[in-house]
């Protein structure tokens, strides 16, 4: 133990030298070797749409007449309509919200797939409880307090884990990452630095490294991991990072998070999991139909989602075979629109999976129907457990061979949404 | 009750003159300071590191002179300790004493209520003279953990804190458990407000056994959970946030809980009976005492200390005051290994250790949130973890907090290290000043290697007349060192 710890410190020292040389390098950042033994698997980017995203207006079931009956003002017109904001057809039943047109080529090209009528079967209609349940990935409210990604990271943890193995973008660490101590909450790459006069931080860092070298586990391990992460991040110049292939991220928290995730992936700092949030999808009033359909909160959010996902895809074209993106939300929304031009908390939702290895079918669903007789208390029924989707991703794309330990009490059923590396 | 001077200051508080109050209530510093020296852990400092949120300058000497037992006696009779200055500081928080019906009227301003309670918790930890009581309150807030940000809990936790946790913290465990079981905040948080005979909700029934009394291996079955849930059907709250038993929701059939038959038709008394069964069960004292010993002594609770506490529990009928006394006066107490400071403890121990003054601004709460340890911010009912391995993740926020704190760069907090140095008669010499702060914060000498490392990083000890900034960096590194992370 002691020996490997010393080695880690030597690495830190060596990295400092590399840092000093950095100014000589023309590249916007050096590639740091967090060499991994063997292939680890994809970088998993998990996007949580906070507030309960209206799945029916993201992937629109235009083939279900009851959708149009339930949504006299909020429905998005059929693909065969002449309306400017008509649905972009994906198959003979589902279509894409036209504000998300940036994603249309990814659907048709087989780089993106949707799963509909998906969610947590016993989920509550309270935001807190539902988000908590989905992020912990457990069956009920008791059980593990750790998150599903936290457990995944613990299970697949190895001796050469990067200190930037798991990043949660935002003020606080997402619940799904809880349970893995080295997950780091980052508001921005540039915020991850030791406070104080920049001319002194090198020497301060060296002092901390020396002092913690003599300290006891587990604190020394944590300190060394933090120091390495500081060193790595210091060498990434976010301002000079230039997305390629014409990728344009929005200048929003969500856009910046994906942009910086792309930077970390390209820097090969050993990132394996990133959590990004987008919200607020809690559209009880004046939800809005599409950008062309007047006011409302929803159109702006789905544009932000789609444009940035597309930018992320294009920016990472050279890496995209090793990146999987999944989106989820705590629940969908009520089928029937309410009297305030909005929708209330619902049940079944939609997940998007972006990868070079997704099934060719743009939408996978066992559609329960929106006829009031088929609804779950007025909501879209859930015909697929979200853990089956996440489990299949972990199993087929991240090299986790103990997925049953991530989703305890749930046996993963194959969804067929994503293929294994061959 | 209040002296005339305090009364006048109190009027100023009502007029919103927080600054005057803050200055007036700031604890006095002794004229001269000579904190413990030597390389060994000072036993009184160790004692205060566990029984308080961290000693204030001069407090180790004060308690040593008074005698630990005398101090402990006073702390256990906490109501007799004058805490008027703290009360003055708390006058600015108007929701603190409100009944639930008034609190619920803050529907459009939930943050106001939750922030006030969290800020008050910090004020008390920092400034209360009843330190042991506050530490015990903190323990129970974790044991009966309630997440602040769920639905009506936003408002009801204020009442739970006041009428359940603080009211019974050093009283009988049976009173505490019963109060908690009647607390609308708890019943709402753990969904017992939805526990109805036709749709039983087992959430609270499970947690009251797993987390509040017996412990997960305490000897109950899934069937017991279902039966306890049946007994608790109808225990809920009114729209005003008061406890209410809804007899029409109650399952009036016969139940069998942990082998005890509860006859049909008991009504609300079924739940009361369950509480007594849990209180009489041998797993309960053992489980709770193990957690107390973990909190006050060691991540791995020594069985002998747990047994001693359980014995006191039995001989006093579960008087927490006496259980805590047994724990803190146990012959093995001084052998306790170090406990990692959780972020809240790191923040408060630094601010107390340097007699920082805080204006009550929210910035400090945000920092705690970033460090993952805002009061009542743990989502699940198991409460914030209490072992080092669960808190030894990212160190950056800890380091930045102490570096900023000692450099006086945290808004709303002011730290005057120069005044402390003057009282320690070390304000002329940088080397002496660093050593003094080592003793002040660590209660023993800074190790020569750490001292050397710090000066290597900062450069030669600066001339304190000309170069104050580098001294602050040296002090920051001292507080960022491993030694200050443990208590």
Measured distance between first and last alpha carbons of chain A: 36 Å
| End-to-end separation of chain B | 37 Å
> Major sheet of chain A, described briefly?
9 strands, mixed
Report the helical percentage of chain A. 25-40%
Mean pLDDT of chain B: 94
Shape by Cα distribution of chain B: elongated
CATH topology of chain A: Alkaline Phosphatase, subunit A
**Which regions of chain A have little confidence, pLDDT < 50, spanning 5+ residues?**
1-39
Structural class of chain B: mainly alpha
Principal-axis shape of chain A equals: globular
Number of helical elements of chain A: 11
- Alpha carbon gyration radius of chain B: 24 Å
**Beta-strand fraction estimate of chain A:** 5-15%
CATH class of chain A: Alpha Beta
User: What's the mean pLDDT score of chain A?
Assistant: 85
Q: What's the total number of strands of chain A?
A: 12
Using only C-alpha atoms, the radius of gyration of chain A works out to 22 Å
Total domain units of chain A = 1
Brief digest:
The complex is a heterodimer of chains A (422) and B (487). Helix content of chain A is 31%, strand content 12%.
Task: Explain the overall architecture.
The complex is a heterodimer of chains A (422) and B (487). Chain A has 11 helices and 12 strands. Chain A has a single domain, classed as Alkaline Phosphatase, subunit A. In chain A, strands 1, 5, 6, 7, 8, 9, 10, 11 and 12 form a 9-stranded mixed β-sheet that branches. In chain A, strands 2-4-3 form a 3-stranded antiparallel β-sheet, with no helix packed on it. Mean pLDDT of chain A is 85; it is low at 1-39. Chain A is α/β, with parallel strands linked by helices. Chain A has helices at residues 2-21, 65-70, 104-108, 127-136, 148-155, 198-213, 219-234, 253-266, 298-315, 386-397, 403-406; strands at residues 43-49, 59-60, 88-89, 95-96, 112-119, 166-169, 184-186, 273-278, 323-329, 349-354, 363-364, 384-385. Chain A is globular. Chain B has 487 residues and is mainly alpha-helical. Chain B folds into 4 domains: 16-54 and 340-487, no CATH class; 67-171, no CATH class; 190-280, no CATH class; 283-335, no CATH class. Helix content of chain B is 55%, strand content 3%. Chain B contains 27 helices and 6 strands. Chain B has helices spanning 4-14, 18-25, 43-51, 59-66, 68-76, 84-90, 100-103, 110-127, 131-143, 153-168, 173-181, 184-189, 203-213, 222-231, 269-280, 283-296, 303-316, 320-328, 343-353, 363-370, 388-391, 396-406, 417-423, 430-442, 448-458, 468-480, 482-485, and strands at 235-237, 243-245, 255-257, 260-262, 357-358, 413-414. A two-stranded antiparallel ribbon of chain B has the order 1-2. In chain B, strands 3-4 form a two-stranded antiparallel sheet. In chain B, strands 5-6 form a two-stranded antiparallel ribbon. In chain B, α1 runs parallel beside α6 (84-90). The two termini of chain B are 37 Å apart. The interface between A and B is large, with 45 and 49 residues.
């Amino acid at each position: 133990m002691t020996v490997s710890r010393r080695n880690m410190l030597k690495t830190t020292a060596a990295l400092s030298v590399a840092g000093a040389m950095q100014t000589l390098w023309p590249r916007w950042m050096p590639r740091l070797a967090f060499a991994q033994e063997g292939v680890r698997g994809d970088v998993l980017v998990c996007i949580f749409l906070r507030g309960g995203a209206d799945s029916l207006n993201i992937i629109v079931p235009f083939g279900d007449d009851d959708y149009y009956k339930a949504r006299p003002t909020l429905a998005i017109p059929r693909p065969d309509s002449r309306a400017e904001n008509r649905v972009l057809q994906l198959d003979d039943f589902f279509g894409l919200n036209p504000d998300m047109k940036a994603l249309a080529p990814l659907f048709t090209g087989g780089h993106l797939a949707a799963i509909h009528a998906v969610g947590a079967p016993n989920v509550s209609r309270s935001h807190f409880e539902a988000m908590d349940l989905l992020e912990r990935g457990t069956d009920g409210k008791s059980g593990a307090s750790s998150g599903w990604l936290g457990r995944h990271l613990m299970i697949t943890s190895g001796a050469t884990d990067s200190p930037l193995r798991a990043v949660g973008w935002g003020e606080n660490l997402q619940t799904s990452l809880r349970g893995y101590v080295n997950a780091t909450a980052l508001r921005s790459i540039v915020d991850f630095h030791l406070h104080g006069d920049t001319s002194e931080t090198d020497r301060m860092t060296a002092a901390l490294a020396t002092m913690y070298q003599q300290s006891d586990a587990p604190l020394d391990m944590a300190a060394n991991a933090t120091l390495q992460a500081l060193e790595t991040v210091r060498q990434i110049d976010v301002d000079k990072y230039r997305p390629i292939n014409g990728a344009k991220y929005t200048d929003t928290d969500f856009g910046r998070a994906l942009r910086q995730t792309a930077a970390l992936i390209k820097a090969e700092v050993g990132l394996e999991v990133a959590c990004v949030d987008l919200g607020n999808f809690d559209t009880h009033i004046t939800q809005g139909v599409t950008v062309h359909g007047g006011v409302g909160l929803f159109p702006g959010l789905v544009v932000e989602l789609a444009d940035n996902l597309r930018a992320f895809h294009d920016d990472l074209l050279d890496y995209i075979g090793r990146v999987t993106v999944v989106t989820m939300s705590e629940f969908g929304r009520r089928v029937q629109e309410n009297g305030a031009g909005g929708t209330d908390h619902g049940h079944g939702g939609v997940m998007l999976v972006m990868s070079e290895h997704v099934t060719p079918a743009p939408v996978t669903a066992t559609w329960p129907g929106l006829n009031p007789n088929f609804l779950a208390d007025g909501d879209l029924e859930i015909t697929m457990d979200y853990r089956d989707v996440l489990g299949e991703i972990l199993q087929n794309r991240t090299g986790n061979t103990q997925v049953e330990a991530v989703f305890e009490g749930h046996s993963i059923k194959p969804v067929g949404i994503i293929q294994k590396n061959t | 009750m209040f002296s005339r001077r305090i009364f006048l200051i109190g009027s100023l508080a009502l007029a919103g003159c927080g600054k005057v109050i803050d200055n007036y209530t700031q604890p006095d510093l002794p004229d001269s300071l000579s904190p413990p020296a030597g390389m060994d852990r000072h036993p009184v400092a160790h004692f205060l590191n566990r029984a308080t949120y961290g000693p204030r300058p001069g407090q180790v000497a004060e308690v040593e002179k008074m005698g630990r037992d005398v101090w402990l006696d006073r702390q256990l009779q906490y109501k007799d300790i004058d805490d008027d200055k703290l009360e003055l500081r708390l006058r600015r928080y108007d929701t603190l004493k409100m009944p639930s019906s008034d609190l619920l009227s803050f529907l459009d301003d939930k943050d106001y209520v939750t922030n006030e309670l969290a800020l008050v918790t910090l004020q008390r930890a920092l400034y209360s003279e009843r330190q042991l009581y506050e530490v015990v309150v903190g323990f129970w807030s974790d044991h009966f953990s309630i997440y602040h940000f769920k639905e009506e809990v936003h408002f009801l936790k204020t009442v739970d804190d006041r009428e359940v946790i603080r009211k019974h913290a050093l009283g009988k465990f049976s009173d505490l458990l019963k109060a908690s079981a009647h607390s609308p905040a708890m019943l709402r948080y753990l969904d017992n407000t939805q526990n109805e005979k036709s749709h039983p909700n087992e959430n609270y029934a499970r947690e009251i056994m797993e987390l509040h009394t017996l412990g997960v291996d305490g000897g109950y079955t899934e069937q017991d959970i279902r039966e306890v849930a049946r007994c608790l059907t109808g225990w809920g709250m009114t729209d005003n946030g008061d406890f209410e038993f809804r007899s029409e929701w109650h399952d009036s059939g016969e139940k069998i809980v942990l082998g005890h038959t509860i006859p049909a038709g008991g009504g609300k008394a079924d739940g009361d009976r369950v509480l007594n069964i849990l209180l009489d069960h041998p797993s309960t004292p053992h489980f709770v005492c193990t957690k107390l010993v973990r909190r006050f002594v060691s991540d791995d609770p020594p069985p002998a200390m747990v047994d001693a506490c359980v014995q006191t529990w039995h001989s006093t009928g579960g008087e927490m005051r006496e259980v805590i006394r047994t724990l803190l006066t146990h012959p093995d107490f001084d052998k306790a290994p170090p406990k990692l400071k959780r972020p809240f403890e790191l923040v408060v121990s630094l601010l107390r250790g340097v007699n920082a003054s805080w204006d009550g601004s929210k910035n400090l709460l945000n920092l705690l949130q970033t460090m993952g340890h805002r009061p009542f911010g743990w989502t699940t009912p198991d409460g914030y973890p209490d072992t080092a391995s669960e808190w030894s993740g990212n160190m950056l926020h800890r380091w930045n907090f102490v570096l900023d704190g000692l450099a006086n760069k945290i808004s709303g907090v002011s730290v005057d290290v120069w005044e402390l140095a003057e009282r320690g008669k070390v304000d002329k010499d940088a080397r002496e000043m660093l050593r003094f702060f080592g003793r002040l914060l660590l209660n023993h000498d800074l190790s020569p290697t750490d001292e050397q490392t710090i000066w290597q990083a900062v450069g030669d000890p600066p001339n304190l007349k000309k170069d104050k900034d580098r001294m602050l960096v040296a002090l920051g590194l001292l507080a960022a060192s491993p030694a200050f992370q443990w208590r």
